[in-house]
């Protein structure tokens, strides 16, 4: 049972677009992640995956993405304003520490919330912290399940 983790964007595109049928998700991965991820496009295989992709494709057409630019730029501007406020805040002396991974995740949540659901997920700082923490917990659990040595067992 060979596991492959791809981080190179060009290789990832090649695998996902041209060679997707050559790589299947492990049975144990589906068993462990299924309850967490559901039966959506990320977990689907074969014909079901193709069907779900066809349903999603219209939302990602160039014109649709272009229409989301105002949402993206507004969200990025809000993030920038938040950073500037931290820089000019009491005692920062023009420098502060920013967790880039957390900030980008929050930005993504904000954009997805506005574009897909018409709401600012994590509108307040406290709510954003709770939503981000919950997402981080889910992603950490998913990563642990994916990278678990159990996947190396026969049938995994």
UniProtKB/TrEMBL annotation:
Record keywords: Heme, Iron, Membrane, Metal-binding, Oxidoreductase, Transmembrane, Transmembrane helix
Pfam families: p450
Organism domain of life: Eukaryota
Transmembrane intervals: none
GO cellular component: membrane
InterPro entries: Cyt_P450, Cyt_P450_sf, Cytochrome_P450_Monooxygen
GO MF term list: heme binding; iron ion binding; monooxygenase activity; oxidoreductase activity, acting on paired donors, with incorporation or reduction of molecular oxygen
SUPFAM superfamilies hit by this protein: Cytochrome P450
Subcellular location: Membrane
PANTHER family the record matches: CYTOCHROME P450 FAMILY MEMBER (PTHR24282), CYTOCHROME P450-RELATED (PTHR24282:SF211)
Stated name of the protein: Cytochrome P450
Organism: Bicosoecida sp. CB-2014
Lineage, uppermost ranks: Eukaryota, Sar, Stramenopiles, Bigyra, Opalozoa
């Amino acid at each position: 049972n060979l596991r492959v983790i791809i981080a190179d964007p060009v290789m990832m595109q090649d695998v996902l677009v041209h060679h997707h049928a050559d790589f299947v998700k492990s049975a144990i991965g589906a068993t462990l992640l299924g309850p967490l991820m559901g039966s959506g496009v990320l977990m689907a295989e074969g014909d079901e995956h193709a069907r779900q992709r066809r349903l999603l494709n219209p939302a990602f057409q160039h014109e649709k993405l272009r229409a989301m630019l105002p949402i993206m730029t507004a969200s990025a501007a809000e993030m920038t304003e938040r950073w500037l406020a931290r820089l000019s805040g009491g005692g920062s002396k023009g420098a502060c520490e920013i967790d880039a991974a957390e900030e980008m995740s929050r930005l993504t949540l904000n954009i997805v919330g506005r574009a897909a659901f018409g709401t600012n997920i994590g509108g307040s700082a406290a709510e954003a912290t709770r939503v981000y923490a919950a997402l981080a917990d889910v992603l950490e659990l998913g990563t642990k399940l994916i990278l678990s040595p159990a996947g190396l067992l026969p049938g995994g």
